[in-house]
Protein 1
Amino acid sequence: MLSEKMATALNEQINKELYSAYLYLSMSAYSTYIGSKGFANWFMVQYQEELTHVMKIYDYVNDQGRQVKLKAITQPPTEFGSGLEMFEKTLAHEKFVTKCINDLVNLAINEKDHATNIFLQWFITEQIEEEANDNEIISKLKLVGKEGNGLFMIDRELATRIFVPPATSNETQA
Ligand code: FEO
């Protein structure tokens, strides 16, 4: 069973992942509104991914015999500027999430909670991938600048992203 402190910290992380989902849903809505369908698709997929992060922690807290306690989700911004600015904001947010995950791992280590430490390793790897994806798109956006054709091509590329549900914990361990 999780300690009270660990359960509280994981419940806070559920809230942060829900906020991440909300933030990316807002970015998707904004992208749709300004006519960037590819960006809208990319952020809609990101929204779906964040919900799977929520549910991973939700299931883990349940499996460890603690109660999931949901809190209010902070309202996200509704204006995000250019595509480059949007991805720079995304990267900044993901760096914040990475720090939160690292703090959770530190807490698990301090508490000698080996199960939670192992559980969180998936998130460590996921954060590396998320930051790398954001950095790659930021580089492309910087390369094309305000050039219309380049931005059109990037929008088309972002339109191809498909949501792939992560493997279940059983599949991960297989
Ligand atoms: Fe759930 Fe994008 O971190």
Protein 2
Amino acid sequence: MTDTSASEALDRAFGLIREIRDYPKPGIGFKDITPLLADPLAFGAVVDSMAEAWRGQVDVVAGIEARGFVLAAPIALALGVGFVPVRKSGKLPHETLGVEYSLEYGTAAIEMHVDAVRPDQRVLVVDDVLATGGTAAATCELVERVGARVAGVSVLLELGFLAGRDRMPGRELSALFRV
Ligand code: AMP
């Protein structure tokens, strides 16, 4: 893809993120990326761009359930590294470590397999949306608790007005789009 067509595809991708008002609760503007995922040109450009920003800098990509999986898996393949799932409580079959945290709308708990990453590995944490930053911060904490290093956090869309970035001082954070 040329630079121009890549940037056109990224513009198109941004335009394909739709906001669903008052979902899942009144007052929340939910950023729905399903139209973007359904468009191969837009989806491909997003994956390429999110991967290229970290080429050579990571050994593992950790995706956050559920929309984070959809981005993290192709990013991992594009970078030639493995994918590790970070899941909601009770979903992983092997021994896990977990952490609880607060969301823009409620609370949640996430888990990782204790042997998902090795101590010497640099982990890129991937999710679709950075809102209050609780999920990404909790994932970074989990990665470090299982003994690996957080190379950084990569999100498709940062909701700047929620200042999630401030929950992760000192972390490398890249956002493809920001509103
Ligand atoms: P937070 O922990 O507040 O940064 O929330 C981030 C997580 O919740 C991500 O896994 C997002 O998929 C989801 N999320 C939170 N707020 C929104 C939103 N307004 N639109 C779409 N997803 C959201």
